[in-house]
Amino acid sequence: MEKTVYSYIKAMRDIIVENKDFLTQLDAEIGDADHGTNMARGFNAVVEKLSEEDLDLKNVLKKAGMGLISSVGGASGPLYGTMFLKAANVAVDNTMDPNVLCQMFKAALDGVKERGKATKGEKTIIDAMEPAYEAFVEVIDSGGSVQQALEKALEAAKEGVEYTKTIIATKGRASYLGERSIGHQDPGATSFTLLLESILKNYMK
Ligand code: ADP
Ligand code: MG
Ligand code: MG
Q1: Is the CB of 83 under 6 A from ligand 1?
Q2: Is 54 a residue whose pLDDT tops 80?
Q3: What is the mean pLDDT of residues 91-97?
Q4: 189: Cβ below 6 Å to ligand 1?
Q5: How confident is the model at residue 22 (pLDDT cuts 50, 70, 90)?
Q6: What pLDDT band is residue 1 in, cutting at 50, 70 and 90?
Q7: Which of 19, 92, 139, 184 could be disulfide-bonded to 149 (CB atoms 3.0-4.6 Å)?
Q8: How far is the CA of 140 from the centre of ligand 2 (A)?
Q9: What is the reported pLDDT for 73?
Q10: pTM (two decimals)
Q11: CA dihedral sign, ordered 194, 91, 116, 49
Q12: 35 CA distance to ligand 2 centroid (A)?
């Protein structure tokens, strides 16, 4: 692995902190105006718990997952925390083997779906994450590079965010709004897309 897992976590923290107000604004429209604050608190706590000497992929992902769960009060904490914990479970040493990455992505997606009992079309993280996962696997399975897979995944996640504008929220706080949630993009789908963007950028650095 060229880049340390720590550098990816820090890149995630940075993009979340940069977009903190934007994410909170999105949540103000259909939720309780704290998604940016929640995510920034969580990722800041995680980065504080880690150090550059933490090089073990599994261990860092596990620490990140536990850190998010323990520091974020909102729904997003346990969901994002589960994402990291499940990926940690299937991570192998420090390999960035494309097939292992596919398995980690799949475990993370299944974990979030199970934890939040949500499927695609409910205006949640899943609307960005599932298409991103599918695009990632498709590229890897057809012999593409990890960079190409990340690029396609990011594209699919962005389309997923656009899709959330067209649908009614049926999970989480935004579901209280019913039809009035239409026209607004989902904060969680947006933060997931930002995380993916930070991964791609750090990968290409
Ligand atoms: P809270 O809603 O508790 O204030 P946040 O504002 O941090 O928490 O997170 C809201 C985001 O969490 C939503 O935009 C949505 O994407 C995501 N979310 C909420 N419930 C679920 C769920 N059951 N499954 C997947 N994602 C969910
Ligand atoms: Mg909120
Ligand atoms: Mg809240």
Answers
A1: no
A2: yes
A3: 85
A4: yes
A5: very high
A6: very low
A7: 139
A8: 35
A9: 86
A10: 0.98
A11: negative
A12: 5
- Between the CA of 74 and the centroid of ligand 3 the distance, in Å, is 5
Span from the CA of 81 to the centroid of ligand 2 (angstroms): 16
The CATH number of 5-204, from 3.40.50.720, 3.20.20.80, 1.25.40.340, 3.40.1280.10, is 1.25.40.340
Instruction: Say if residues 149 and 139 touch (Cβ distance below 8 Å).
Output: yes
CA distances from 37 to 2, 24, 152, 161, 189 (A): 31, 7, 29, 20, 16
**Is the distance from the beta carbon of residue 118 to the nearest atom of ligand 1 less than 6 Å?**
yes
Over the stretch 132-177, which tens digit does the pLDDT of each residue have?
999 999 999 999 999 999 999 999 999 999 999 999 999 999 999 9
Say yes or no: CB of residue 75 within 6 Å of ligand 1.
yes
Residue 158 near residue 190, CB atoms below 8 Å: no
Taking each helix axis from N to C terminus, what angle separates 146-164 and 126-141, rounded to the nearest 10 degrees? 150
CB 172 within 8 A of CB 127: no
Phi, psi of 169 (to 5 degrees): -75, 130
Q: Where are the domains of the chain?
A: 5-204
Residue 203: CA atoms inside 13 Å, Cβ hemisphere, count? 15
DSSP 92: -
Task: Give the confidence band of 115 by pLDDT, cuts at 50, 70, 90.
Answer: very high
C-alpha span between 75 and 122 (Å, rounded): 15
Task: Using CB atoms within 10 Å of the CB of residue 179, give its burial: 0 to 12 exposed, 13 to 18 middle, 19+ buried.
Answer: exposed
